[in-house]
Amino acid sequence: MLEQARIRTALFQQRLKAAGIDIAVLSDESSIAYLAGFWGYLSVEFGRPSFLIVRPDEAPVVLTPLMESEMVSAMTWVEDIRTWEDAGANRWEAVLGNILGEKPGRLAVERGTLPALVRNWFDNAYPDIALQDVSPLLGAMRMVKSPEEILVMRQAGEIAGAMMAAAEAALGEGVAEYEA
Fold this sequence. Notes:
Structural class: alpha/beta
Radius of gyration: 19 Å
Number of strands: 6
Strand content: 5-15%
Distance between the termini: 34 Å
Order of helices and strands: HEHEEHEHEHEHH
């Protein structure tokens, strides 16, 4: 599946270029998994965001907490993995700012899923830049499934069906629902 993620990222980069977007900063776990092939352990709900930074003509960059970087490295095809720390000069805000630079050009995010913590940082760090919404580009890609994705969906359906059959078999008169 990592090769599929690499292919999807290349297609996403082509779409970014065609849309005139200079940098896409993805923070949604499902989008990062779709393109980079990994998911985090503790995420933005715990104040620990991970990012996938994608430029049309450069290799993508992963920004993740230092304590998760070994796991991320083992799960993704992306080679440029940068880390941030909970305190000091290497907090995520500083590292992300260094990656993006002073004048990043046309920035795009997934507006509907952008965490408030990250949105507030963008508003303060780049007050003169209107964030574009990259969700339609990525959403259009995700609607069309590859044969590999269909296979995974079928396998997930089989597992779900087996779980439902087991739950049904465990039900009976006088059996508490939680026992099923």
